[in-house]
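User: I've been trying to design a sequence by hand for this structure and keep getting stuck. Would you show me what you'd pick, starting by listing the structure so we're on the same page?

Assistant: Good idea, let's start from the same input. This is the structure you sent:
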């Protein structure tokens, strides 16, 4: 499948890569922005963007540090500022998305995020307020390794955690982890867990994930992300948003609990529906795109 031609938007001092699919000749005012997860890019929406573009103005974007967007050096809390460095965080990415919506899309928008892209969508929606028409979270990251989720009763983890934090701050450690993870064989092994049915786990998908990792500074976004130990949880942000939210969940996600998603649905009144895709894992939009696209379209039609 040929990838869409990308555009470039200048945000602050960085270049942000994005694309638009608008295949209908009929003028419409419904805008969608697709936000990828960790290690992915806008190409991960390969089976969704053009389909949704038949009925809507469907944008996708590379978060700062990923895909073809700029990749500044990671700046951790204890480090002094250096040129072309940034603290990777959900505030950073949320502000990126909100600014893109204001400066490029310029109209109210539905935000759709997978994995950490879901948390980014929630933060952006908080900033955009009534300029966000709705949110669709696809296997949203639950961030179980965040400090706020660490149980005091877990004595071993409480003892080991300071050591872990000290280790992953070191570039020699984060670079080694990155080099081991970013090769096609390991990527395929990880995807076999993320895509339990094996559908659409093909060479193109490996390329989508592997190619950006070969850019000069890609290891810096990796270092920044693995050092996010105290940032927003989705539940921190769900309380702050009034707009309608849909949860789409792959039943067999090995990392993000369906049971926890069900608890969100009971607790937060703005979650209007939870749709479970049977047999799918962490990325149902790519593993089972037909079902995901139908559910997205249905939600938008219900809430537009």
């Amino acid at each position: 499948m040929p990838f869409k031609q990308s555009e470039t938007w200048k945000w602050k001092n960085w270049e942000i890569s994005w694309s638009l699919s608008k295949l209908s000749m009929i003028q419409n005012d419904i805008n969608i922005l697709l936000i990828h997860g960790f290690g992915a890019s806008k190409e991960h929406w390969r089976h969704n963007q053009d389909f949704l573009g038949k009925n809507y103005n469907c944008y996708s974007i590379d978060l700062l540090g990923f895909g073809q967007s700029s990749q500044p050096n990671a700046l951790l809390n204890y480090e002094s500022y250096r040129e072309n460095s940034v603290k990777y965080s959900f505030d950073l990415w949320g502000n990126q998305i909100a600014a893109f919506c204001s400066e490029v899309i310029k109209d109210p928008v539905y935000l759709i995020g997978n994995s950490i892209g879901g948390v980014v969508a929630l933060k952006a929606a908080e900033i955009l307020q009534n300029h966000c028409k709705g949110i669709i979270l696809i296997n949203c990251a639950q961030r179980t390794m965040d400090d706020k989720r660490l149980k005091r009763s877990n004595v071993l983890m409480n003892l080991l955690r300071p050591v872990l934090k000290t280790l992953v701050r070191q570039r020699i450690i984060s670079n080694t982890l990155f080099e081991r993870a970013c090769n096609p064989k390991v990527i395929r092994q990880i995807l076999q867990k993320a895509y339990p049915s094996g559908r659409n786990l093909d060479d193109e998908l490996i390329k989508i994930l592997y190619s950006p990792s070969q850019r000069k500074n890609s290891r810096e976004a990796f270092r920044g992300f693995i050092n996010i130990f105290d940032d927003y949880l989705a539940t921190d942000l769900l309380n702050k948003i009034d707009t309608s939210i849909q949860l789409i969940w792959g039943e067999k996600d090995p990392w993000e609990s369906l049971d926890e998603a069900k608890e969100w649905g009971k607790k937060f009144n703005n979650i209007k529906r939870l749709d479970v895709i049977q047999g799918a894992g962490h990325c149902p939009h790519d593993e089972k795109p037909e079902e995901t696209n139908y559910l997205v379209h249905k939600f938008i039609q219900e809430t537009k």
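That's my pick for every position. To get oriented when you compare it with your attempt: The first strand starts at residue 7 and ends at 11. The domain at 7-303 is CATH 3.40.50.1820 (Rossmann fold).
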